[in-house]
Design goal:
It is a single chain. The longest helix has 19 residues. The strands form 3 sheets. A 10-stranded mixed β-sheet has the order 2-1-3-12-11-4-5-10-8-9, sandwiched between helices. Strands 6-7 form a two-stranded antiparallel sheet. With about 375 residues, the protein is an alpha/beta fold. The chain has 2 domains: about 210 residues, 3-Layer(aba) Sandwich (Isopropylmalate Dehydrogenase); about 140 residues, 3-Layer(aba) Sandwich (Isopropylmalate Dehydrogenase). It is built from 12 helices and 14 strands. The chain is about 40% helix and about 20% strand. The structure holds 3-isopropylmalic acid and magnesium ion. The site of 3-isopropylmalic acid (IPM) has 7 residues, from helix 4.
């Protein structure tokens, strides 16, 4: 098979972890006989520096003519001024929006060999294996008005939390489908005791539930969810949440796995056969971590979240389940052998840098 992939490394540790994910993909290509056809594009702060925009048109064109997109990370202190005309983060937000990637799958798994790397008690971590489905193209991130201005009585800023029933329906439907394929339990997160958008969310979720009587649906308020995710993480299977709640809860949930550097994600335009036009969509795969400017350039970033994102790409965009599992098994294997990047080395082990970690994972594929 020919795998035509747009590679968007971005800023900070993005290019460092991307190089390792590519090593792993090339190993997959050699073992399973696939041609890995990569084309690089610019995005984020480095694109602002060279093109004046975080998402140059040629990057969008590149994405549209590829079969899938691998994305590293964007941002950094250099572009962080509140008055900056262009922001690196707008690059990734614009791609998500323009490709209609409303469904962001964030699996959270605890590897037995990393159980002591998390600050959460091992007894609570046993059996943790969940998927957080984050709505990715609506809510506070995108709805208008969204602006800052000066009035006679001082400065004001506004972001809008708005959801249409269509946006809620399609993400909740994806969540029910995922739950149906797993343990048939779905938890929907909202703040329905305060927010109108959440009351609509809950109503629509209950309506969609009628199509999935075999799945158990539980509603939970986001503040209670934040607590319960740490207190009883193993009790969750599929969680669905609006954009910002999902952003916050997945950073929290990553602590269960030992490090944010471990977490992959897939951004999809829904599911084939479930969501309209999902068959022809181009999906994007990215680790949930950011550009980590504090450790960029030191060669110590954890490439596992990026490599596992590549595995999700093999599965969801190319239907290559065996290949995806080969990558996942390699990651599990090198962790069991004791290889650790510094972020997951609190229990000791063989501490290695980004490149070495990529090489050992690729070597096991
Ligand atoms: C994430 C990140 C992004 C988000 C930022 C970089 C815009 O935090 O993917 O979780 O908030 O979506
Ligand atoms: Mg985030």
């Amino acid at each position: 098979m020919n795998l035509k992939i747009a590679i968007l490394p971005g800023d900070g540790i993005g290019p460092e972890v991307m190089a390792e994910a590519i090593k792993v993909l090339e190993a997959v290509g050699r073992r399973f006989g696939h041609a890995i056809d990569l084309e690089y594009g610019r995005i984020g702060g480095n694109a602002i520096d060279d093109f004046g925009t975080p998402l140059p048109d040629e990057t969008v064109d590149l994405c549209r003519r590829s079969d899938a997109i691998l994305f590293g990370a964007v941002g950094g202190p250099k572009w962080d001024s509140p008055d900056a005309a262009a922001r690196p983060e707008d690059g990734i937000l614009a791609i998500r929006k323009s490709l209609g990637l409303f469904a962001n799958l964030r699996p959270v798994k605890v590897y037995p060999s990393l159980i002591n790397s998390s600050p959460v008690k091992p007894s609570l971590l046993e059996g943790v294996d969940m998927i957080v489905l984050r709505e990715l193209t609506g809510g506070l991130y995108f709805a208008r008005p969204k602006r800052r201005w000066t009035t006679k009585s001082g400065r004001r800023g506004v972001d809008t939390l708005r959801y249409t029933e269509h946006e809620i329906e399609r993400i909740v439907r994806v969540a029910f489908e995922l739950a149906r394929g797993r343990s048939k339990r779905l938890t929907s997160v909202d703040k329905a005791n305060v927010l109108e958008s959440s009351r609509l969310w809950r109503q629509v979720a209950d309506e969609v539930h009628e199509d999935y009587p075999d799945v158990e649906l539980e509603h939970i308020l986001v503040d209670a969810a934040a607590m319960s995710l740490i207190r009883s993480p193993a009790s969750y299977d599929v969680i669905v949440a609006e954009n910002m709640f999902g952003d916050i809860l997945t950073d929290e949930a990553s602590v269960l796995s030992g490090s944010m550097g471990m977490q992959p994600s897939a951004s999809l335009a829904g599911l084939p056969g479930v969501t309209e036009n999902a068959e022809s969509a181009i999906s994007l795969y990215e680790p949930i971590h950011g550009s980590a400017p504090d450790i960029a350039g030191q060669g110590i970033a954890n490439p596992i979240g990026m490599a596992l994102s590549a595995a999700m790409m093999l599965r969801h965009s190319f239907g290559l389940e065996d290949e995806a599992q080969a990558v996942e098994a390699s990651v599990e294997g090198v962790l069991a052998e004791g290889y650790r990047t510094p972020d997951i080395a609190s229990d000791g082990g063989d501490v290695v840098g980004t490149e070495r970690m990529g090489t050992v994972i690729a070597g096991r594929v």
